[in-house]
Design a protein that fits this description.
Blueprint lengths: L15 E3 L2 E2 L14 E3 L2 E2 L14 E2 L3 E2 L18 E3 L8 H7 L6 E4 L2 E4 H21 L1 H4 L5
Parallel strand pairs: 1-3, 2-4, 3-5, 4-6, 6-7, 7-8
Antiparallel strand pairs: 8-9
Helix pairs in contact: 1-2
């Protein structure tokens, strides 16, 4: 089991990192120790990551997650990145997870090919409005159970 802390980058918990992080085929199983913000690309393809917990919240470049067969969810993915490469993952309905976890990118590379943000923006906005309504009005009210 190899955590991010055990790589050449060391423990960057809570920090901003300026530059690319390339751990393609790094034997990584955990993102524990990753920085909070990365001003560059983050390449985590071809590893054994099971969760994105510990992933930076913002990546100004691309995030590459392809070929992590044990990654089952995009929960904890950054809220923004330039391009999100999520091809060859065992995540069904990956676009639904992108919308659910509100991951904004200019383009998503999935098993369905390249999808620009403009193609899902309306669904993205609808999901956000629904979540905001639940927060402000309550789930029971939205279902008509409090009448």
């Amino acid at each position: 089991m190899k955590t991010f802390k055990e790589t050449k980058y060391g423990d960057l918990t809570g920090q901003t990192y300026n530059g690319d992080i390339n751990l393609n085929r790094g034997g990584l199983t955990s993102l524990d120790g990753m920085p909070l913000i990365v001003n560059g690309d983050v390449i985590l393809s071809n590893n054994d990551i099971k969760s994105l917990k510990g992933c930076p919240i913002t990546i100004t470049g691309d995030l590459s997650l392809g070929d992590n067969p044990n990654l089952k969810s995009l929960e904890y993915a950054p809220k923004s990145c330039r391009w999100l490469y999520c091809k060859d993952l065992n995540i069904p309905n990956i676009i639904e997870q992108i919308i659910q976890f509100q991951i904004k990118a200019k383009r998503y590379i999935t098993y369905d090919g390249g999808i620009p943000f403009s193609d899902i923006k309306e669904r993205f906005d609808d999901y956000k409005k629904m979540k905001d309504n639940i927060k402000s009005k309550g789930f029971r009210t939205l279902l008509g159970l409090d009448k």
